[in-house]
Amino acid sequence: EKEGYPFFMIKEIYEQPRALRSTIHGLVNDVIIDEAVKLLADADKVFITGAGTSYHASEYFALTTMKLSGKPVIPFIASEYEVYAEVAGSSDILIAVSQSGETMDTMKAVRAFKAKGCRIISLTNIVDSAIARESDIALYTRAGPEIGVAATKTFLTQTLFLSWISILLASETGRLNSNEVAKLLEELRNAPRYVEESVSMSSETVKKLAEKLVPVKSMYYLSRDIGLPVAREGALKIKEIAYIHAEAYPAGESKHGPIALVEPSFPVVFTVPSDRKLEKLLLGNIEEMKARGGFVISVAPQGFNLNERADIVIEVPRTHWILTSLTHTPPLQLLAYYVATMKGLDPDKPRNLAKTVTVE
Ligand code: M6R
C-alpha cells in the first residue's frame, strides 16, 4: 500500500527513519552480531560483495572498516567474483550483501567462495532468502518490504548495519577504546533523527534543482573517501529512474580525463563528507569545475562554507563522517525522484529493470 503517496519510491524514502529504527532494534538485540564480528576479526582476508546499490553499501563498509579498524577489506562487484574467488582460502570470509537475497550474481559469488572453504556472512532484507540459507551467519537489515525498483531504504539500513559492525570490529582489533565505541554507536543510534533532518532541510532546494535538471543529458557525481560510494549511489539513482547519464568517480580523477567533458552549465554534484580535510580537497576540485563553467551542486554539512564556491548548496546535518551515507543520500534519492516525476516517468517502473535480477 502506498499510504497516500503517489509512488512507492517516495513512500520508501520517507519511511527511512522508521526502517532505521527497526534495524537498530535488531542490531541491539541480535547476539549473532558478536559471532560475526569475531569471525571477521580472526579472518585472514575479508571480502565483501553485492550488485548495484548493495555493492555501494559493500564499498562503504570496506572504507569504514579500513578507516576505523585498520583491517584491509576487499570489496568487489558480485558479477566479477571469479578472479576474487581465485585468491580466497579457508581462513577468509565473504560478506554477501543483497536486499532481496535472491540476486544470481551475488549467489554465484557465495557459491564460488564456499567452494574455496570460506565462511559466508550474508546481510539480506528477506528472512530465509536463498542467499541467507546458503550462508554460515545470516544477518538481516529489517527495513521492511521495498517495492520500488530503486533501492532506497535498504541502502540506508545496509550502511547503518555495516557501519555498526565496523565499529565493533575496531573495538575487537583494539583500535577503538570503549569510550570511542560507545560514542560512535550512540551517533548511529541518532541516525533516524539525522535522516529526518536531512530530508526536511534539503527537500525544497532539491525540488527547485530538479526543475533545472529536467533537460540535462549527462552529469557527474564526484567525491572522495567515504563520500564516494554515496556519489555512486546518487549517480545510479538518477540513471535508473530519471534516465540521465551520470558518472560517479573520485574527484581527484577529474584531471586525468573526465574534465574534458565539462563545458558551461555541465552539472557536477559534489558529495562533501563531514570532514574538514576532505572539504579542503574537494574545494580544490570544485574550483576546477567552476573554472570550466561547470554548474556545481554540493551536498554538504551545515556550517561548511561552500556557498561562494558552488552554484547550489544542499545542506544536510553535520555529524560524524561515519554517517555520511545517512545524511547525504536522501537528497540524492529525492533529486532522482523529482526529476523523474517532472519528466512524467514512473519511478517505480523504470524501463528494462526488475526488482530482483535472478539471471547471470
Ligand atoms: O536485491 P539486491 O540488493 O541483491 O539487488 C542488487 C541490485 O540489483 C539493486 O541494488 C539494483 O541496482 C537497484 N535497482 C538499485 O536501485
Structure, described:
The chain has helices at 8-14, 16-29, 32-42, 53-69, 81-86, 104-115, 130-133, 153-172, 178-189, 191-213, 228-242, 276-291, 324-342; strands spanning 46-50, 73-77, 93-98, 119-124, 137-140, 218-223, 245-250, 267-271, 295-301, 312-316. The chain is of the alpha/beta class and 360 residues long. A five-stranded parallel beta sheet has the order 2-1-3-4-5, sandwiched between helices. A five-stranded parallel beta sheet has the order 7-6-8-9-10, sandwiched between helices. α3 packs across α8 and α11 runs parallel beside α13. The chain starts with 7 loop residues before the first helix and ends in an 18-residue tail after the last helix. Bound molecules: 5-amino-5-deoxy-1-O-phosphono-D-mannitol (M6R).
What is the terminal separation in angstroms? 31 Å
Largest sheet geometry: 5 strands, parallel
Low-confidence runs of at least 5 consecutive residues: none
Describe the strand arrangement of the main beta sheet, using strand numbers.
2-1-3-4-5
Helix content: 40-55%
- Oligomer status: single chain
**Mean of the pLDDT scores?**
95
* Total of DSSP H or I helical runs spanning 4+ residues: 13
What structural class do the secondary elements suggest? alpha/beta
Order of helices and strands: HHHEHEHEHEHEHHHEHEEHEEH
Beta content comes to: 15-25%
- Number of extended strands: 10
Rg:
19 Å
Bound molecules: 5-amino-5-deoxy-1-O-phosphono-D-mannitol
Morphology? globular
